[in-house]
Known about the structure:
Layout: E1 4-12, E2 19-29, E3 32-36, H1 48-55, E4 58-63, E5 66-74, H2 77-90, H3 93-100, E6 107-112
Antiparallel strand pairs: 1-2, 1-4, 2-3, 3-6, 4-5, 5-6
Amino acid sequence: MNATPDLMITTVGRKTGRLRTTTHAYGSAEGRLVLVGPGSEQGPYLPGWYQDLMAHPEAEVRLGERTLHVRAHTAHGAERSRLWKKLVSGRPVYQRYANAARGEIPVVVLEETA
Length: 114
């Protein structure tokens, strides 16, 4: 799984309802885009973009000149394990994040909707 730092995702703010755009490194696996939601070494902090996606899972992704409409879900169980291994093989820094975190780091799957 290769990671590239040029995915931009626009989510709906869970509190404000405003559109918010953030930039992420991403991987691709099984025909889907995959993001990692690193938290904090100080506690079980979940980034705002992740919380927004969980409240409103429909989002817009910009990859270079392409714009995609996606629906997000957090991978769990065997799906998470399989994707995590692929993510870490492409970006070993994710394992360092996981070692320092106080909880499981979310793996977010973005599936194109149409």
